[in-house]
Amino acid sequence: MVSVSVSPKPAITIVMALVLFFIFIYESKSSDEISPLFVADKNNNKVNLSVYYESLCQPCATFIIKNLYEIFNTNLISIVNLQLVPYANSHVNLTNNSISCQNGQDECILNSLESCAMNLWSDVGKYYGLIYCFEFLAIEGRSNKWQDCFDQLGLPLSSILNCSRGNGTELAKKYIKETTKLNPPHSFLPWVVINNQPIAQDYANFTYFVCKAYKGIAVPDACNPIR
């Protein structure tokens, strides 16, 4: 179980607010009101994009807020099954059933909150918006102010806290086990895998690999210069 406390909240910057607004525009569109901008591939041709990371890993946070969020901005999300896998460098202590994270207890807390958001919410825009907010604060060295994200985004804090304090350890084990299945094993973070193939040091160019892997006809604009 992860111990989580609540403290005073800072303000979120205008730049991050604008990015989160765009992500939530995507999340808020129901299936019967999707505009042409958000038409998704419905023929099971989506590309599996998996990102293995730790919440306080600086290269991971940079990738999430500066690169990966572009899948919403360019509509690449319409052809992608996005899987985020935290705890990628964490371990289970079999003696006391606790979780040890690469960057300490603060990272375990954020990992737990992020895994609970993904477990409780099915909308990728909803949980990605929260994760984006957490990682933005991590880049600024204010990761302990994570609770501000719930207020600014109007998201329910209590359900995430209940999950973290209750099912958090089991979710951590799930993601740690998922990471051990990597073949080849990851050698750094973030570790980006597309259709079970790692792209290693070229992870910032994931859009190129997604577009090349996509076999459908609902091609988003982001892929037009590539295909």
List the helices and strands and how they pair.
Elements: H1 14-28, E1 47-52, H2 58-68, H3 70-73, E2 80-85, E3 91-93, E4 98-100, H4 105-120, H5 124-139, H6 147-153, H7 157-166, H8 168-180, E5 191-194, E6 197-198, H9 206-213
Parallel strand pairs: 1-2
Antiparallel strand pairs: 1-5, 3-4, 5-6
Protein architecture, described:
By secondary structure, this protein is an alpha+beta fold. It has a single domain (45-223), classed as Glutaredoxin. Helices cover 44% and strands 11% of the residues. It contains nine helices and six strands; from the N terminus they run H-E-H-H-E-E-E-H-H-H-H-H-E-E-H. It has helices spanning 14-28, 58-68, 70-73, 105-120, 124-139, 147-153, 157-166, 168-180, 206-213, and strands at residues 47-52, 80-85, 91-93, 98-100, 191-194, 197-198. A four-stranded mixed β-sheet has the order 2-1-5-6. Strands 3-4 form a two-stranded antiparallel ribbon. Helix 1 (14-28) packs antiparallel against helix 5 and helix 4 (105-120) crosses helix 8 (168-180). The longest helix has 16 residues, at 105-120. The chain crosses the membrane at residues 6-26.
Percent of residues in helices: 40-55%
Oligomer state of the chains in this structure: single chain
Number of helices: 9
Runs in which pLDDT lies below 50 for 5 or more consecutive residues are 6-11, 30-38
CATH H level: which superfamily? Glutaredoxin
Compute the gyration radius: what is it? 17 Å
Largest sheet: 4 strands, mixed
Give the spatial strand order of the biggest sheet.
Answer: 2-1-5-6
The first-to-last residue Cα distance is 47 Å
Name of the CATH class? Alpha Beta
CATH topology title = Glutaredoxin
Give the SSE string. HEHHEEEHHHHHEEH
Identify the overall geometry: globular
In total, the number of strands is 6
Mean pLDDT: 87
Q: Helices and strands: which structural class?
A: alpha+beta
Q: What is the correct CATH architecture? A: 3-Layer(aba) Sandwich
Q: Tell me what portion of residues adopts beta-strand conformation.
A: 5-15%
State the domain count: 1
InterPro entries: Interferon-induced_GILT
Family: Belongs to the GILT family.
Transmembrane segments: 6-26
Pfam families: GILT (PF03227)
